[in-house]
Amino acid sequence: MSDTAVSQPLDQSEEMPVTDPADALLQVENLHTVFRQGRRAINAVNGVSFSVGRGETLAIVGESGSGKSVTAMSLLRLIPSPPGEIIDGDVYFDGRNLLDMSEDELRSVRGNEIAMIFQEPMTSLNPVLSVRQQLAEPMRVHRKVKEENIEARCLDLLRQVRIPDPEARLDAYPHQFSGGMRQRVMIAMALACEPRLLIADEPTTALDVTVQAQILELLKDLTRQHGSSMILITHDLGVVARYADRINVMYAGQIVESGTALEIFENPRHPYTLGLIASMPRLDAEEKARLKPIEGQPPDLGNPPAGCAFHPRCPFAKPQCREQDPPLEPYRGNHLKACWVNVDE
Amino acid sequence: MGVYLLRRLLALIPTLLFASILVFGVVRLVPGDVLDLMLSENDYSASTHDTRADLERALGLDDPIYIQYVNWLGDVVLRGDLGESLWRNTSVNAEIAERLPVTIELGVLSLLIALTIAIPVGVYSAVRQEALGDHLGRSFSIIALAVPNFWLGTMVVILPAMWWGWSPPSIIQPFFSDPIENLKVFLVPSLILGASLSAVVMRMTRTMMLEVLRQDYIRTAWAKGLRERKVVLRHAVKNAMIPVITLVGILVPILFGGTVIIEQIFRLPGIGQLLLDSVSNRDYPIITGIFLISGVMVLVVNLLVDLCYGLLDPKVRYDD
């Protein structure tokens, strides 16, 4: 049941990663994840390739259903199967293909070298186990920490995530914590084995605005301290601008634009990115200016439109967009876009 | 915890009082009168009570029903005395005390068998949903639900007797002096009672496990790199057991009903058999006593169930 991925035999001759695996900590190549509903197949992730450098924070941005969470879950093969299935692609972590690993090998990566934080702190902790029990688990499984050292290590972790009075909180249960505090416990748990990559799947979506900022600052500080890389999944562009080195914009299961935070905000090249930025509330906007939503609805991924998936909603669409799916190509250096249109025209 | 327990035990008193009124009254509303029954039997018509009124007076049934109730209740509360059988000169306490261990052993054994089958199979069925084992487990539970245990019990008694001249033993050795001989008597009836219970518990366990396995915290457990064993046994089962425990509390009275029939089929001298005899003889004190005792047991089991929540669910605290 945990065997959530299809293991593709690695064909050494042609499937080698494009960039030198020594550079990137994580290299995702042409990832395809589908969900089957009867005879329908929903292409939730449809040919996604990207890489995360060491110590880098990569943001994956997109609206609900764009495939960003599924991408994150696919990396660790946490897609519930059935109905989900990774049908193609490679995920190289430090040169090793996660999608080819045996269940045992993968387990030694999960929670150890790659840890994950989820969207819902209220439901992501087990209600019947104490914080101590849950916090100690990854250390017991991966690090063989001696029993007598576990308590000290747990307290240290709770201090790192700035939970006040950790001694008193260690034996508490999740329902005795607020949402923000639970997310701190989740972060402490994720950091227990000092992972090299932290995947944070909308870590602040369920939290109050003030708590959001605290959690993000905490994540930023801790990853920087440990030199960990982070994949930050969010639909909130405001979060991205502040915390991400690089940004992947996802739409309908594909990356439509990729660049540094500066490139994406200063010079967005994809009409969807433009739309996202235009729909952000701004403090410097003139009074009573209305937000500009992107017209229309995201496509049905079981039956996507021909050509560019965004063309039905795109104000710049031209005939070519209806016929050919644009590839993700360099616009300038490492700033990539998947669009036939030059938005400046 | 102590305060909670005391409060719960005190709350049993009004419940039992109400139940006793109900039982005392309803038993006497059953059509057919004990006096008519007795007078139609030879040894009574030949006895000293030559008139109906004499007999009624002798049995203490001539007072108005509320006086009878108050007298009876007084004996129960003050002396723990449930009265005397109308037919035999034996005390109800002794009759019940003699037979209660048989019924309790049958019930406890059935419940143990049911849980030992149901929980592992239910968990397995959920974890390997749609696999062969799941289909086998679910088929078994459908069959066990569909086959009435009185039919199954009858077949188990009749068929081996017809084929091999074998019938289940019914002479009970005390469990602590000869456990093997004792279990020889109880095993088959307990299996039959346990099978139908296990079907219900298994389906509940499977449903709850499927529900729990979809929860976010199970995904968290996977993401931590835990083995499937740990994810299932440590993270899922404890959560799934909370409603299953409730179900067990509800099943106990149903189990008691089942023992009445099974005891009859296997000729086990338990409470069920005593109850059946007493109902057909209209032996009111015995019937009332049995209902009162079984009522106490059901209430106690439900109290235990409530205490079990505290062990499973940290949100339940008794010390407020």
From TrEMBL, chain A:
Cell location: Cell inner membrane
Pfam hit, one: oligo_HPY
Enzyme kind, highest EC tier: translocase
Gene Ontology process terms (BP): peptide transport; transmembrane transport
Primary localization class, coarse: membrane
Molecular function per GO: ATP binding; ATP hydrolysis activity
Catalyzed reactions per annotation: a dipeptide(out) + ATP + H2O = a dipeptide(in) + ADP + phosphate + H(+)
GO cellular component terms, A-Z: plasma membrane
Family matches, as InterPro entries: AAA+_ATPase, ABC_Ni/Peptide_Import, ABC_transporter-like_ATP-bd, ABC_transporter-like_CS, Oligopep_ABC_C, P-loop_NTPase
CDD domains the UniProt entry points to: ABC_NikE_OppD_transporters
PROSITE patterns: ABC_TRANSPORTER_1, ABC_TRANSPORTER_2
Record membrane topology: Peripheral membrane protein
Enzyme Commission designation: 7.4.2.9
Alphabetized UniProt keyword annotations: ATP-binding, Cell membrane, Membrane, Nucleotide-binding, Transport
Role: Part of the ABC transporter DppABCDF involved in the uptake of various di/tripeptides. Is also involved in the uptake of phaseolotoxin, a toxic tripeptide inhibiting the enzyme ornithine carbamoyltransferase. Responsible for energy coupling to the transport system.
Subunit record text: The complex is composed of two ATP-binding proteins (DppD and DppF), two transmembrane proteins (DppB and DppC) and a solute-binding protein (DppA1-A5). Five orthologous SBPs (DppA1-A5) are present in P.aeruginosa, which increases the substrate specificity of the DppBCDF transporter.
Family statement: Belongs to the ABC transporter superfamily.
Name of the protein described by the UniProt record: ABC-type dipeptide transporter
UniProtKB/TrEMBL annotation, chain B:
Transmembrane spans: 9-30, 106-127, 139-166, 186-205, 240-266, 286-312
CDD domains, A to Z: TM_PBP2 (cd06261)
UniProt keyword Transmembrane, yes or no: yes
Any Gene Ontology CC annotation: plasma membrane
Domain ABC transmembrane type-1 as annotated: residue spans: 100-305
Main location: membrane
Keywords (A to Z) from UniProt: Cell membrane, Membrane, Transmembrane, Transmembrane helix, Transport
InterPro entries assigned: BPD_transp_1_N, MetI-like, MetI-like_sf
Membrane topology annotation: Multi-pass membrane protein
BP terms from Gene Ontology: transmembrane transport
Pfam families for this protein: BPD_transp_1 (PF00528), BPD_transp_1_N (PF19300)
Classification via Gene3D superfamilies: MetI-like
Entry's localization field: Cell membrane
Family according to the record: Belongs to the binding-protein-dependent transport system permease family. OppBC subfamily.
Protein name: Peptide/nickel transport system permease protein
Upper lineage: Bacteria, Pseudomonadati, Pseudomonadota, Gammaproteobacteria, Pseudomonadales
